[in-house]
Amino acid sequence: MTRAASRNHRRGSVTVEFAIAAPVFFMFVFATFEFSRVNMIRNTIENAAYEGARRGVLPGATAANCEAMTQDLLDNVGIANTTITVIPSVIQDDTDEVTVRVDVPITAANGYITPSYYLGKTLRATVTLPRETGN
pTM, whole model, 2 decimals? Predict the structure, then answer.
């Protein structure tokens, strides 16, 4: 076999090897994007729930203040379709603690790519802090 014939024969095997390896490679690349985005969302909602609860424990705070603080942090990162729950819904002077719960569904709106591993799942973060009395 001549050198030119040997190279042409090898060219076909390189194409077959690429056809086998490329889908696996791209699956890992896209999975990395999805796992990274979900991890960022998880960390962000934990921080947002904490900051919202922290806002709610201050004297004179309202549930609307908690929700606004939490939503602002989520909006900064582009997290959509969130559900923010503040317990109690009316914060009074004698309230002992404030709980903020954030639920985020994993949808195409919350991913860099259309998620496949986490699609349809919901991430949740809950933070409860004791109230400051202001005395």
Answer: 0.78
CA distance 133 to 78: 34
Q: Domain-by-domain residue ranges, the chain?
A: 3-130
Tens digits of per-residue pLDDT, 66-92? Answer: 999 999 999 999 999 999 999 999 998
- Options 2.30.30, 3.40.50, 3.30.1300, 3.80.30; CATH for 3-130 is 3.30.1300
User: Rounded to the nearest 5°, which phi and psi values hold at 100?
Assistant: -120, 125
Q: How far is CA 64 from CA 28, 58, 119, in A?
A: 42, 13, 30
Q: Distance between CA 92 and CA 54 in Å, rounded?
A: 15
104-111, Cβ contacts within 8 angstroms, sequence gap of 24 or more: 104/41, 104/45, 104/74, 104/79, 105/81, 106/38, 106/41, 107/80, 107/81, 109/80, 109/81, 110/37, 110/41, 110/79, 110/80, 110/81, 111/33, 111/34, 111/37, 111/38
